[in-house]
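[Discussion] Sanity-checking designs against the backbone

I'm trying to build intuition for which residues belong where. Below is a structure token string of 78 positions. I'd appreciate it if someone posts a full sequence so I can compare it with mine line by line.
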């Protein structure tokens, strides 16, 4: 079985630590914000990682595979 790990922002993260993934890029209006335009990946340790849109899409793809996407074709057990 594949190990449920994904690289986000140069860190290997177990997929089961991810609570949610931002659908829209971050915007807060702060002048010194360094996360603007990045996508937040919320972890269950009260911490977040930040990534590009491509990185965000990779995370969602990995989560879909790992969780089993009910929309996916094939491998229908019923
Ligand atoms: Zn901000």
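Best answer:
Here's mine. Compare freely.
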């Amino acid at each position: 079985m594949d190990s449920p790990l994904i690289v986000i922002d140069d860190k290997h993260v177990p997929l089961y630590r991810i609570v949610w993934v931002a659908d829209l890029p971050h915007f807060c209006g702060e002048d010194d914000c360094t996360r603007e335009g990045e996508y937040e990946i919320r972890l269950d340790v009260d911490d977040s990682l930040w990534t590009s849109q491509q990185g965000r899409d990779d995370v969602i793809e990995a989560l879909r595979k790992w969780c089993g996407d009910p929309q996916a074709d094939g491998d229908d057990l019923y």
